[in-house]
Structures are given as structure tokens and as C-alpha cells.
Fold this sequence. Notes:
Elements: H1 2-17, E1 19-21, H2 28-37, E2 47-49, H3 54-61, E3 67-71, H4 77-83, E4 86-87, E5 104-107, H5 117-131, E6 137-140, E7 146-150, E8 153-156, H6 158-172, E9 181-182, H7 188-193, E10 198-201, E11 205-208
Parallel strand pairs: 1-2, 3-4, 3-5, 5-6, 6-9
Antiparallel strand pairs: 7-8, 10-11
Amino acid sequence: MAAxxxxxxxxxxxxxxxxxTNAASRLPEQxxxxxxxxxxxxxxxxxxxxxxxxxxxxxxxxxxxxxxxxLGPDSASGYVTRAGGHDWTNHRVDDWANDxxxxxxxxxDQRAVRWPKDLNRALNLIIRRQNAGRSLHLxxxxxxxxxxxxxxxxxxxxxxxxxMLESVFAIQYPERPLALQRLGKPSRPxxxxxxxxxxxxxxxxxxxxx
Length: 210
């Protein structure tokens, strides 16, 4: 019973503190619905996802209305829209010449990314913008390299795609290294945005959400 009591306390604290997650494939309300269906009632306002970090970045850099190439599922597009960007990903998808108008590359999630077509599109966009001397904002929501996809099995994630692009430039174009801005854990931006209340639970002492 004591163990069950402690579990209940942890669950209560978890709900009160909220959850910081590297998720960027779905919006907070979609994630909250999933958590609730699994028995852990959460409100979307209690979640801080790496996709939500696009909004403060866009505001800080004055990117409202900017065209964005998004690597990830369609469900991640909501983060771009809420940040004030314009998802250009499905605009004349096979005519990369139009990509010259894109100002931001966002790697959100590995789901729905077509290999190697979508990575090739991102690669060519970066090279053309650099050759033309035009800046391009490079953002990575989820820096994780792998994730457990099944018991005893792992799969590559969005961070691995970013490392691949960075490695190509480090070898092929050493004079112009590439570095994507990492937004999610363990990078600083997501922790800068997270609330930090301090709580005391019997038997656990003080702790905060970070």
C-alpha cells in the first residue's frame, strides 16, 4: 500500500508539474488526449513540446509569414502555423526551383519523411541558399538520435537526419560548416521556456520540473 501511495503522489506531482517532451509530430492537445486515454489525465497547457519552441524562435527572429520547409508528418505543420510561418512543404513538391523562396528549414520528426527524397530536397535547398549568399534558418525540434521503437529495438529519429546533413557539409564543404539550432532536450532552449516550480512531497524531498 505504501508503494501504491507513493506512485499516486508521483502521478499527482507529474500532472501538477507538467511534462517537457521532445515530441514535435503532434500538437499538445493531441498528445494530451493520448495521455488521458492511457489513464494519466493531462491538459494541453501542462505540456511543453519541442515543437512549441518554434513560436518564440520565430517571434525573436521576426519570421512571421516566412516560408518553411518542414520535414515531418502533416500533423507537425500546426507548429509552423502557430509560430506564424507558412508551411511550403507541399507547394509544388517536385519543383525544387521554387524552394528558393524558403527561409526556414524545420526538422520536426522522422515520421512521414520520404527517404532519400526529402533529405535531398533539404540538402539542395541549403546548398543553393549558401551559394547565393542568402541566409537560411535551420531548426531541429527533436535532437534525439535514436528511440526505442519496440522491445529490444531502436530506430533513427529526427536528430540523426540533422547529424547526417551536418556531416555532409563538414566533409564536403569544410569551409562552410552547417549547424542546426537544436530546440528540444537536452539543449538549452526548451529548458529556458519550461516552468520551474519547486514542490515538496513526503518521502521525496524538494524537486522541480527540470
